[in-house]
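Tokens in:
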């Protein structure tokens, strides 16, 4: 299991496009991906769960990857979140 703490930097947070991109990217990995936000665990491979979590700019989140390809999945998650999803 690997994890990393992030502050969401893109102005719109995890709105539809970045949430879709994130879920699609994480679905390519064999490990589980969990986003911890406001004390809740969110399935990082589920677009609907990500949207329902209402992750906004400035929110603090932890991404936890566990299983096959966990390091690669966390690296990809970090790249996406830290770049502000290219926005």
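Residues out:
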């Amino acid at each position: 299991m690997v994890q990393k703490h992030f502050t969401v930097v893109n102005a719109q947070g995890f709105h539809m496009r970045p949430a879709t991109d994130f879920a699609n990217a994480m679905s390519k990995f064999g490990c589980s991906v969990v986003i911890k936000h406001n004390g809740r665990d969110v399935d990082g491979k589920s677009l609907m769960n990500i949207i329902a979590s209402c992750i906004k700019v400035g929110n603090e989140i932890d991404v936890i990857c566990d299983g096959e390809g966990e390091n690669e999945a966390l690296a990809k998650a970090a790249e996406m979140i830290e770049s502000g999803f290219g926005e």
